[in-house]
Amino acid sequence: MPTSWCRSFPFIRAITLKKDGTLVVEDQIEEAVTPVRWGMITPADIVIDGKKATLSQGDKIVIATITSDEVDKFETFSTKPVFDYEEQNEDYTMLGATAVPKDGKITIKVVLTP
């Protein structure tokens, strides 16, 4: 019988909502030995320019910016599941970023500005 092994590691998430409506999400991971993907699912249209992504839906716009050295750029990922019998997540996309550990640590800080 196959077995799976999962290793846990220290993880802290801080979320700050500023008075101007800016949302800051900061994840700190210690003892990381592999790259880690940060992501959010959205129905918005996404335009990426390196560490900056513009999310628009109707007349609403949000700018997402990565301020972490461990991340090079934003990317988009499909939300379509492997199996046809699952909800197909039509009209949704994952905005994500992959962080590579430095000295076993990762900090991913994303600022969402209206």
The count of domains is 1
Number of strands: 9
Strand order of the largest sheet: 1-2-9-6-5-4
Element-by-element helix/strand order: EEEEEEEEE
The number of helical segments is: 0
Q: How would you characterize this protein structure?
A:
The protein is mainly beta. Helix content is 0%, strand content 53%. The protein is built from no helices and 9 strands. It has strands spanning 11-17, 23-30, 36-42, 45-49, 52-57, 60-66, 75-78, 93-99, 105-113.
List the helices and strands and how they pair.
Layout: E1 11-17, E2 23-30, E3 36-42, E4 45-49, E5 52-57, E6 60-66, E7 75-78, E8 93-99, E9 105-113
Antiparallel strand pairs: 1-2, 2-9, 3-8, 4-5, 5-6, 6-9, 7-8
Q: Quick recap of the structure?
A:
By secondary structure, this protein is an all-beta fold.
Which short descriptors sum up this protein?
globular; 114 residues; six-stranded antiparallel β-sheet; three-stranded antiparallel β-sheet; 53% strand; mainly beta
